[in-house]
Amino acid sequence: MRITHRLAKPLPGKIPVLVGTGILVLGLLALSLLLSLSRTSHVAIASNKALHPFTITSPDFRDGGSLSQKNEFNQFGCTGSNLAPELNWTNVPAGTKSFAMLMSDYDAPVAGGFHHWIVYKIPAGSREL
């Protein structure tokens, strides 16, 4: 009889632990569902951006190639026309407020390289420089 009484008696220390564990499990399940849904939308967005990345091109040189002679300096043994290369860009990210362009020559024989251009506050609607 004493054993029956013990089993029927509520265990006050265990109930809050069980309720807390249940709430934690339900919260983790809800979080898992939300993360799986958000991951799917991020994958779709990422794949869309992969199809249309922000791209800079120039008719004056190829990716990894050298500038033409018209873009070279006209001193110190160089015989170029010292003209800036034309730059064009497409697929501007939504919300762009302005552009900045830094053109540095890290191979130049000066400490830290030579900084040719530092241009900023280029309007967001611009597509060439």
Structure report:
This protein is an alpha+beta fold. It folds into two domains: 2-51; 55-123, PEBP-like (Phosphatidylethanolamine-binding Protein). Helices cover 35% and strands 19% of the residues. The chain contains two helices and four strands. It has helices spanning 2-8, 14-51; strands spanning 55-57, 88-90, 98-105, 114-123. The strands form two sheets. It has a two-stranded antiparallel ribbon. Strands 3-4 form a two-stranded antiparallel ribbon. The chain is elongated. The chain starts with a helix and ends in a 6-residue tail after the last strand. The model is unreliable at 1-8 (pLDDT under 50).
Itemize the secondary structure elements and their pairings:
Layout: H1 2-8, H2 14-51, E1 55-57, E2 88-90, E3 98-105, E4 114-123
Antiparallel strand pairs: 1-2, 3-4
Concise synopsis of the structure shown:
This protein has two helices and four strands; from the N terminus they run H-H-E-E-E-E. With 129 residues, the chain is an alpha+beta fold.
Widest sheet, order of strands? 1-2
Count of distinct structural domains: 2
- Low-pLDDT parts are 1-8
Helix content: 25-40%
- What's the shape? elongated
Secondary structure tally, helices: 2
CATH superfamily of the largest domain: PEBP-like
Helix-strand sequence: HHEEEE
User: Could you describe the largest sheet, including whether it forms a barrel?
Assistant: 2 strands, antiparallel
Task: Give the CATH class of the largest domain.
Answer: Alpha Beta
Mean of all residue-level pLDDT scores = 75
- Overall radius of gyration: 32 Å
